[in-house]
Amino acid sequence: MMLVRKAAAFVKRDYIIESSYKFAFVFEMLTSVLPVISFYFVAKLVGGAGSENLSEYGGRYFPFVVIGVAFTQYFMLALSTFAATIRRSQMAGCLEATLSCPTSPQVVIIFSSLYSFLAKLVHILLIFALSGLFLGMSFRSANFASAAVILVLTVLTFAAMGIFSASAVVVLKKGDPIEWIFGALSSLLGGALFPVRLLPAWVQGIAAVLPITYSLDAMRLAILKGYSLQQLWHQVAILAVMSAVLLPLAVWSFAAAVEKGRRDGSLMHY
Fold first, then answer.
1. Which end of the chain is more exposed for a tag (fewer CB within 10 A), N or C?
2. Taking the CA of residue 116 as centre, how many other CA atoms within 13 Å lie in the half-sphere pointing to its CB?
Protein backbone atom coordinates (compact mmCIF):
# COMPACT_ATOMS: atom_id res chain seq x y z
CA MET A 1 0.00 0.00 0.00
CA MET A 2 2.89 2.34 0.68
CA LEU A 3 4.20 1.79 -2.87
CA VAL A 4 0.72 2.34 -4.32
CA ARG A 5 0.37 5.65 -2.45
CA LYS A 6 3.83 6.73 -3.64
CA ALA A 7 2.98 5.79 -7.23
CA ALA A 8 -0.28 7.74 -7.04
CA ALA A 9 1.56 10.76 -5.62
CA PHE A 10 4.07 10.75 -8.49
CA VAL A 11 1.27 10.45 -11.08
CA LYS A 12 -0.71 13.28 -9.44
CA ARG A 13 2.36 15.51 -9.31
CA ASP A 14 3.17 15.00 -12.99
CA TYR A 15 -0.46 15.41 -14.06
CA ILE A 16 -0.69 18.75 -12.24
CA ILE A 17 2.53 19.93 -13.88
CA GLU A 18 1.57 18.81 -17.41
CA SER A 19 -2.05 19.95 -17.30
CA SER A 20 -1.00 23.40 -16.08
CA TYR A 21 0.31 23.99 -19.63
CA LYS A 22 -3.14 23.67 -21.21
CA PHE A 23 -2.27 24.42 -24.83
CA ALA A 24 0.73 22.09 -24.77
CA PHE A 25 -1.45 19.43 -23.12
CA VAL A 26 -4.00 19.57 -25.98
CA PHE A 27 -1.45 19.91 -28.77
CA GLU A 28 0.45 16.87 -27.55
CA MET A 29 -2.68 14.76 -27.96
CA LEU A 30 -3.36 16.21 -31.40
CA THR A 31 0.24 15.50 -32.43
CA SER A 32 -0.30 11.83 -31.60
CA VAL A 33 -3.68 11.50 -33.31
CA LEU A 34 -3.51 13.61 -36.48
CA PRO A 35 -0.83 11.54 -38.31
CA VAL A 36 -3.35 8.69 -38.42
CA ILE A 37 -5.28 10.61 -41.08
CA SER A 38 -2.12 10.81 -43.19
CA PHE A 39 -1.62 7.06 -42.88
CA TYR A 40 -5.22 6.54 -44.02
CA PHE A 41 -4.62 8.35 -47.32
CA VAL A 42 -1.18 6.78 -47.80
CA ALA A 43 -2.88 3.39 -47.43
CA LYS A 44 -5.31 4.38 -50.20
CA LEU A 45 -2.32 5.25 -52.40
CA VAL A 46 -0.66 1.93 -51.67
CA GLY A 47 -3.92 0.09 -52.30
CA GLY A 48 -3.46 -3.60 -52.93
CA ALA A 49 0.09 -3.29 -54.22
CA GLY A 50 1.61 -4.87 -51.13
CA SER A 51 -1.31 -7.04 -50.03
CA GLU A 52 0.62 -10.28 -50.61
CA ASN A 53 3.17 -9.19 -48.02
CA LEU A 54 0.39 -8.29 -45.56
CA SER A 55 -1.79 -11.36 -46.06
CA GLU A 56 -1.05 -12.84 -42.62
CA TYR A 57 -2.26 -9.56 -41.03
CA GLY A 58 -5.44 -9.26 -43.08
CA GLY A 59 -4.03 -7.77 -46.29
CA ARG A 60 -4.76 -4.08 -45.55
CA TYR A 61 -1.98 -1.54 -45.07
CA PHE A 62 -3.85 0.99 -42.92
CA PRO A 63 -4.44 -1.27 -39.87
CA PHE A 64 -0.91 -2.63 -40.28
CA VAL A 65 0.73 0.79 -40.12
CA VAL A 66 -1.56 2.23 -37.42
CA ILE A 67 -0.70 -0.59 -35.02
CA GLY A 68 2.99 -0.39 -35.94
CA VAL A 69 3.35 3.36 -35.47
CA ALA A 70 1.12 3.64 -32.36
CA PHE A 71 2.92 0.95 -30.41
CA THR A 72 6.36 1.96 -31.65
CA GLN A 73 5.72 5.40 -30.16
CA TYR A 74 4.77 3.76 -26.87
CA PHE A 75 7.86 1.57 -26.80
CA MET A 76 10.11 4.50 -27.67
CA LEU A 77 8.60 6.31 -24.67
CA ALA A 78 9.65 3.39 -22.46
CA LEU A 79 13.13 3.72 -23.91
CA SER A 80 13.51 7.48 -23.46
CA THR A 81 11.44 8.53 -20.46
CA PHE A 82 13.79 7.34 -17.70
CA ALA A 83 16.83 9.09 -19.16
CA ALA A 84 14.72 12.22 -19.78
CA THR A 85 13.61 12.21 -16.13
CA ILE A 86 17.22 12.00 -14.96
CA ARG A 87 18.28 14.74 -17.35
CA ARG A 88 15.52 17.12 -16.18
CA SER A 89 16.50 16.56 -12.57
CA GLN A 90 20.15 17.22 -13.40
CA MET A 91 19.29 20.48 -15.15
CA ALA A 92 17.05 21.54 -12.26
CA GLY A 93 19.79 20.77 -9.75
CA CYS A 94 17.62 18.39 -7.72
CA LEU A 95 18.88 14.98 -8.82
CA GLU A 96 21.02 14.33 -5.77
CA ALA A 97 18.23 15.39 -3.39
CA THR A 98 15.69 13.25 -5.24
CA LEU A 99 17.89 10.15 -5.24
CA SER A 100 18.83 10.67 -1.57
CA CYS A 101 15.26 10.46 -0.27
CA PRO A 102 14.12 7.37 1.72
CA THR A 103 12.60 5.84 -1.42
CA SER A 104 15.14 3.80 -3.39
CA PRO A 105 16.58 5.39 -6.58
CA GLN A 106 15.11 2.59 -8.70
CA VAL A 107 11.59 3.24 -7.38
CA VAL A 108 11.97 7.00 -7.82
CA ILE A 109 13.02 6.70 -11.48
CA ILE A 110 10.21 4.24 -12.27
CA PHE A 111 7.46 6.17 -10.47
CA SER A 112 8.61 9.44 -12.05
CA SER A 113 7.72 7.96 -15.44
CA LEU A 114 4.32 6.45 -14.62
CA TYR A 115 2.35 9.48 -15.76
CA SER A 116 4.07 9.46 -19.16
CA PHE A 117 3.08 5.84 -19.70
CA LEU A 118 -0.55 6.46 -18.70
CA ALA A 119 -0.82 9.57 -20.88
CA LYS A 120 0.65 7.82 -23.92
CA LEU A 121 -1.73 4.89 -23.40
CA VAL A 122 -4.61 7.35 -23.59
CA HIS A 123 -3.14 8.63 -26.87
CA ILE A 124 -3.08 5.07 -28.27
CA LEU A 125 -6.72 4.54 -27.27
CA LEU A 126 -7.65 7.79 -29.04
CA ILE A 127 -5.79 6.66 -32.16
CA PHE A 128 -7.68 3.37 -32.20
CA ALA A 129 -11.00 5.11 -31.51
CA LEU A 130 -10.46 7.49 -34.43
CA SER A 131 -9.36 4.63 -36.70
CA GLY A 132 -12.31 2.44 -35.75
CA LEU A 133 -15.08 5.03 -35.72
CA PHE A 134 -14.16 7.11 -38.75
CA LEU A 135 -11.48 5.38 -40.84
CA GLY A 136 -12.82 1.86 -41.24
CA MET A 137 -10.43 -0.11 -39.03
CA SER A 138 -12.14 -3.17 -37.54
CA PHE A 139 -11.54 -4.62 -34.07
CA ARG A 140 -14.20 -7.34 -34.28
CA SER A 141 -11.62 -10.14 -34.23
CA ALA A 142 -9.25 -8.51 -31.73
CA ASN A 143 -7.92 -10.52 -28.80
CA PHE A 144 -7.19 -7.71 -26.37
CA ALA A 145 -6.04 -10.07 -23.61
CA SER A 146 -3.21 -11.36 -25.81
CA ALA A 147 -2.38 -7.80 -26.87
CA ALA A 148 -2.22 -6.69 -23.22
CA VAL A 149 0.24 -9.45 -22.32
CA ILE A 150 2.44 -8.59 -25.30
CA LEU A 151 2.28 -4.90 -24.36
CA VAL A 152 3.39 -5.55 -20.77
CA LEU A 153 6.26 -7.83 -21.79
CA THR A 154 7.49 -5.39 -24.44
CA VAL A 155 7.26 -2.38 -22.14
CA LEU A 156 9.28 -4.26 -19.52
CA THR A 157 11.95 -5.05 -22.11
CA PHE A 158 12.11 -1.50 -23.44
CA ALA A 159 11.99 -0.14 -19.90
CA ALA A 160 15.06 -2.22 -19.12
CA MET A 161 16.88 -0.61 -22.03
CA GLY A 162 15.56 2.76 -20.86
CA ILE A 163 17.00 2.19 -17.39
CA PHE A 164 20.34 1.26 -18.99
CA SER A 165 20.02 4.56 -20.85
CA ALA A 166 19.31 6.44 -17.60
CA SER A 167 22.41 4.82 -16.09
CA ALA A 168 24.45 6.14 -19.00
CA VAL A 169 23.04 9.65 -18.44
CA VAL A 170 23.99 9.54 -14.75
CA VAL A 171 27.57 8.64 -15.70
CA LEU A 172 28.07 10.41 -19.05
CA LYS A 173 25.65 13.37 -18.46
CA LYS A 174 25.08 13.87 -22.19
CA GLY A 175 25.43 11.85 -25.37
CA ASP A 176 23.71 8.60 -24.37
CA PRO A 177 24.65 5.91 -26.96
CA ILE A 178 22.16 3.29 -25.74
CA GLU A 179 18.99 5.23 -26.53
CA TRP A 180 20.36 6.42 -29.86
CA ILE A 181 21.52 3.05 -31.18
CA PHE A 182 18.73 0.87 -29.80
CA GLY A 183 16.03 3.42 -30.66
CA ALA A 184 17.27 3.97 -34.20
CA LEU A 185 17.53 0.25 -34.93
CA SER A 186 14.10 -0.47 -33.43
CA SER A 187 12.39 2.34 -35.37
CA LEU A 188 14.02 1.42 -38.68
CA LEU A 189 14.13 -2.38 -38.57
CA GLY A 190 11.28 -3.31 -36.22
CA GLY A 191 8.56 -3.37 -38.87
CA ALA A 192 6.55 -0.28 -37.90
CA LEU A 193 5.94 0.87 -41.49
CA PHE A 194 6.61 -2.27 -43.53
CA PRO A 195 6.97 -6.03 -42.97
CA VAL A 196 10.41 -7.13 -41.78
CA ARG A 197 10.47 -9.78 -44.51
CA LEU A 198 11.01 -7.03 -47.11
CA LEU A 199 14.45 -6.26 -45.66
CA PRO A 200 17.60 -7.90 -47.04
CA ALA A 201 18.37 -11.25 -45.40
CA TRP A 202 21.38 -9.95 -43.45
CA VAL A 203 19.35 -7.01 -42.11
CA GLN A 204 16.59 -9.40 -41.05
CA GLY A 205 19.25 -11.08 -38.90
CA ILE A 206 19.74 -7.78 -37.03
CA ALA A 207 15.97 -7.32 -36.70
CA ALA A 208 15.73 -10.80 -35.18
CA VAL A 209 17.56 -9.66 -32.02
CA LEU A 210 15.28 -6.64 -31.47
CA PRO A 211 12.28 -7.14 -29.15
CA ILE A 212 10.09 -4.80 -31.19
CA THR A 213 10.20 -7.20 -34.14
CA TYR A 214 8.41 -9.89 -32.14
CA SER A 215 6.17 -7.42 -30.36
CA LEU A 216 4.70 -5.71 -33.42
CA ASP A 217 4.22 -9.04 -35.17
CA ALA A 218 2.34 -10.42 -32.16
CA MET A 219 0.33 -7.20 -31.66
CA ARG A 220 -0.92 -7.27 -35.24
CA LEU A 221 -1.82 -10.96 -35.09
CA ALA A 222 -3.64 -10.46 -31.76
CA ILE A 223 -5.57 -7.33 -32.78
CA LEU A 224 -6.24 -8.03 -36.45
CA LYS A 225 -6.54 -11.84 -36.45
CA GLY A 226 -7.53 -12.61 -32.85
CA TYR A 227 -4.58 -14.86 -32.07
CA SER A 228 -4.47 -16.36 -28.58
CA LEU A 229 -1.41 -16.53 -26.34
CA GLN A 230 -1.03 -20.20 -27.29
CA GLN A 231 -0.78 -19.21 -30.96
CA LEU A 232 1.70 -16.47 -30.05
CA TRP A 233 3.81 -18.67 -27.75
CA HIS A 234 6.99 -18.08 -29.79
CA GLN A 235 6.84 -14.27 -29.51
CA VAL A 236 5.67 -14.43 -25.88
CA ALA A 237 8.54 -16.72 -24.90
CA ILE A 238 11.18 -14.52 -26.54
CA LEU A 239 9.83 -11.32 -24.96
CA ALA A 240 9.51 -13.00 -21.55
CA VAL A 241 13.13 -14.18 -21.64
CA MET A 242 14.38 -10.77 -22.79
CA SER A 243 12.53 -8.92 -20.02
CA ALA A 244 13.52 -11.46 -17.34
CA VAL A 245 17.21 -11.15 -18.25
CA LEU A 246 17.47 -7.45 -19.03
CA LEU A 247 15.37 -5.88 -16.27
CA PRO A 248 17.39 -7.10 -13.25
CA LEU A 249 20.63 -6.17 -15.02
CA ALA A 250 19.26 -2.70 -15.79
CA VAL A 251 18.16 -2.08 -12.19
CA TRP A 252 21.58 -3.18 -10.95
CA SER A 253 23.36 -0.92 -13.47
CA PHE A 254 21.32 2.10 -12.38
CA ALA A 255 22.06 1.48 -8.70
CA ALA A 256 25.77 1.14 -9.56
CA ALA A 257 25.71 4.38 -11.60
CA VAL A 258 24.04 6.31 -8.76
CA GLU A 259 26.52 4.92 -6.23
CA LYS A 260 29.41 5.95 -8.48
CA GLY A 261 27.97 9.46 -8.76
CA ARG A 262 27.65 9.72 -5.00
CA ARG A 263 31.23 8.56 -4.46
CA ASP A 264 32.82 11.00 -6.90
CA GLY A 265 30.31 13.83 -6.23
CA SER A 266 29.14 14.06 -9.85
CA LEU A 267 25.38 13.61 -9.37
CA MET A 268 24.85 17.38 -9.49
CA HIS A 269 26.95 17.82 -12.64
CA TYR A 270 25.33 18.26 -16.03
1. N
2. 20
